[in-house]
Amino acid sequence: MGNCMKTTSQVDNSMNTGGTYPSKVTSKTSLSSVTTTSKTNSTRSTFTLPSIKDRSEFSTRTECEILSSSNLKAFLFSDLKNATKNFRPDSLLGEGGFGHVFKGWIDEHTLAPSKPGIGMVVAVKKLKPEGFQGHKEWLTEVNYLGQLHHPNLVKLIGYCTDGDNRLLVYEFMPKGSLENHLFRRGAEPLSWAIRLKVAIGAAKGLSFLHHAENQVIYRDFKASNILLDSEFNAKLSDFGLAKAGPTGDRTHVSTQVMGTHGYAAPEYIATGRLSAKADIYSFGVVLLELLTGRRALDKSKPGIEQNLVDWAKPHLRDKRRLYRVMDTKLGGQYPKKGAHAIANLALQCICNDAKMRPQMSEVLEELELLQEPKNDSASPYVDTQRTSNVDTRRTSNTVPKSPMRGQPSPRRTLGKTASPLPAYRTAQVH
Question: Is the distance from CB of 202 to CB of 222 less than 8 angstroms?
Answer without folding.
Answer: no
